[in-house]
C-alpha cells in the first residue's frame, strides 16, 4: 500500500469504528421518535458541515444534472434514513444480531456489484477478503431469533448499507467528500421531517432528555460530521470495494462499546470474530504483504486515479 491508500484505509476504518459506536448510542434512543431523532441528527450535522463545504460549492451544485440530484435523494433515502428505519423495524420482531449479520454481508455485495456496474470482473482478492469480513461479523454477533418480517427488514438494511456506498460513487468526484456529506445530510433531514409528519403527525418531534441529547449529539457531531467525511475521503482514495471491507469493523466496535453502557458483553466469540474481520480487511485491502504480492500494477493505476481525484 502506498501513502494515499494507507490514508484512505485509515480514514475508512475510523469512520466505521465511529458508526459502530453509534449502535450503542441508538440503544439510548429507544423511546425517542425515530423520524424526529433522524431530523435532529442530520439537521445539526448539515449546519455544522455547511461552513466546511469548500470554495465553489454553489457552482458545483448548480453543475449537477437532474439525474445526479435524484441519486443524492436516493442516497439519503436509502443509505441513511431508510437504513436506520429498516434496522429499527427489523429489531421489532428480530434480535439485533439478525440485521447485524445481514449488514455484515455488505462487503461481499459491493465487491460484486461495483465492478459489474463498471463493466469489469470482481477482484478475487477483494472478494476473498469480504467473505472473511462477513464471516467475522457473523461470529461477533451470532444469529438470533426472527420471523419473516424481521428477515425482510434486515435485507432492506443490507440494501441500505450497500446503497450508501454504491449510490455515492458517481457524485463523489464532482462534489468531493465534504460537500457530498453536507448535501446528503441536508436532504436526509428534509426527508426525515416529511416522514415524521406523515407517519406520526404532531408527535414526530419532542424535546430530548439529557441522555437522549447526549446520544443525539454523539451521532450528529462525531458519527455523522466526522464519520461521513472520513468515510467518503477514504472511499475517494481506495474505492468503494475496499472501503466497504472496513464496514466489518462496525459490529466489532459495537461489541466493544456495548459493555460500556451495560447493553452487552465481550467474550471469546467476539474476539474470534474480530480477528476474522481484521484478517479479511488485511487480505482484501492489500495491507497484508503476502496477499499484496504480485498486485503492484493495479496499485500503480489506482494511485494515478486517486491523484486525479485530489485535483478536483
UniProtKB/TrEMBL annotation:
Q: Which SUPFAM superfamilies match?
A: Multidrug resistance efflux transporter EmrE
Keyword Protein transport assigned: no
Major location category of this protein: membrane
Note the topology in the membrane.
Multi-pass membrane protein
Superkingdom of this protein's organism: Bacteria
Spell out where the chain crosses the membrane: 40-57, 69-90, 96-118, 125-144, 150-172, 179-199, 215-233, 245-262, 268-287
Which keywords fit this entry according to its UniProt record? Answer: Cell membrane, Membrane, Transmembrane, Transmembrane helix
Instruction: List locations, semicolon-separated.
Output: Cell membrane
Q: Per its UniProt record, what InterPro entries does this chain match?
A: Diverse_Substrate_Transporter, EamA_dom, EmrE-like
The residue ranges of the EamA domain are 7-139, 173-283
Family classification:
Belongs to the EamA transporter family.
Q: What is this protein called?
A: EamA family transporter
**What organism is recorded for this protein?**
Streptomyces ardesiacus
Amino acid at each position: 500500500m502506498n501513502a494515499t491508500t494507507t490514508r484512505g484505509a485509515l480514514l475508512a476504518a475510523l469512520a466505521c469504528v465511529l458508526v459502530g459506536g453509534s449502535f450503542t448510542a441508538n440503544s439510548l434512543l429507544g423511546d425517542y421518535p425515530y423520524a424526529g431523532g433522524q431530523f435532529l441528527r442530520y439537521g445539526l450535522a448539515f449546519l455544522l458541515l455547511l461552513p466546511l463545504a469548500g470554495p465553489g460549492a454553489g457552482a458545483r451544485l448548480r453543475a449537477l444534472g437532474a439525474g445526479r440530484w435524484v441519486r443524492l435523494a436516493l442516497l439519503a433515502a436509502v443509505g441513511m434514513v431508510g437504513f436506520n428505519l429498516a434496522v429499527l423495524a427489523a429489531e421489532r420482531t428480530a434480535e439485533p444480531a439478525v440485521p447485524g449479520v445481514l449488514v455484515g454481508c455488505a462487503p461481499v455485495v459491493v465487491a460484486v456489484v461495483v465492478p459489474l456496474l463498471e463493466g469489469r470482473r470482481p477482484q478475487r482478492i477483494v472478494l476473498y477478503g469480504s467473505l472473511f469480513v462477513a464471516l467475522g461479523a457473523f461470529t461477533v454477533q451470532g444469529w438470533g431469533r426472527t420471523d419473516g418480517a424481521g428477515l425482510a427488514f434486515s435485507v432492506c438494511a443490507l440494501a441500505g448499507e450497500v446503497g450508501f456506498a454504491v449510490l455515492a460513487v458517481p457524485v463523489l468526484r464532482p462534489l468531493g467528500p465534504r460537500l457530498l456529506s453536507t448535501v446528503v445530510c441536508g436532504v436526509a433531514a428534509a426527508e426525515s421531517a416529511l416522514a415524521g409528519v406523515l407517519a406520526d403527525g404532531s408527535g414526530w418531534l419532542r424535546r430530548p432528555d439529557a441522555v437522549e441529547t447526549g446520544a443525539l449529539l454523539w451521532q450528529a457531531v462525531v458519527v455523522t460530521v466526522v464519520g461521513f467525511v472520513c468515510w467518503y475521503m477514504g472511499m475517494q482514495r481506495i474505492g468503494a470495494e475496499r472501503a466497504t471491507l472496513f464496514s466489518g469493523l462496525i459490529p466489532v466496535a459495537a461489541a466493544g462499546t456495548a459493555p460500556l453502557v451495560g447493553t452487552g458483553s465481550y467474550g471469546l466469540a467476539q474476539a474470534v470474530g474480530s480477528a476474522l474481520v481484521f484478517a479479511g480487511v488485511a487480505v482484501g485491502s492489500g495491507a497484508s504483504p503476502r496477499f499484496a504480492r504480485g498486485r503492484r500494477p493495479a496499485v500503480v493505476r489506482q494511485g494515478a486515479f486517486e491523484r486525479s481525484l485530489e485535483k478536483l
